[in-house]
Amino acid sequence: MRFAAALSLIGLVAMLAGCASDGASPNATAANDPYESTNRQVFAFNQKVDQYVFLPGANAYNAVVPEPAREGVHNFLVNLDLPITFANDVLQGDFSRAGDTLGRFGLNSTLGLGGLLD
């Protein structure tokens, strides 16, 4: 028993020692992403577009469109996603949930005016 504990301790120390250094030179780690500067520029551009275009547009949408209409748009978009959810449920073998999803899609598409009403 003591031998197994000692052997386990030695194995643990050896594994931890392996994590102490990756053996790579500083120059090798600097070259991990050759497109880093481009990625940073694209990210900065996307942040500015989000800040000056999409955020004001979303705020204007919230200010102009009343809540019931926004909720109807949301319900419509959720209804458009239900066939994908149904396929996912079937592929996972969850046929009970797939039946619920199919029934929900059928009712919302017909009686719910294309999904506008939930």
How would you explain this protein's 3D organization?
It is a single chain. The chain is an all-alpha fold and 118 residues long. The protein has 5 helices and no strands. Helix 4 runs antiparallel to helix 5. It is flat, with a radius of gyration of 27 Å. The termini are far apart.
Oligomer: single chain
Bulk shape: flat
Structural Rg: 27 Å
The N- and C-terminal alpha carbons lie at a distance of 65 Å
- SSE order, as H and E? HHHHH
Helix content: over 70%
Helix/strand/pairing category: mainly alpha
- Count of helix runs: 5
What's the mean pLDDT score? 86
Strand content: under 5%
The number of E-state strands comes to: 0
Q: pLDDT under 50 segments (min length 5)?
A: none
Major sheet summary line: none
Short précis:
This protein has helices at residues 2-18, 26-30, 36-64, 67-91, 95-110. With 118 residues, the protein is mainly alpha-helical.
Task: Supply the key terms.
118 residues, 5 helices
List the topology elements.
Layout: H1 2-18, H2 26-30, H3 36-64, H4 67-91, H5 95-110
Helix pairs in contact: 4-5
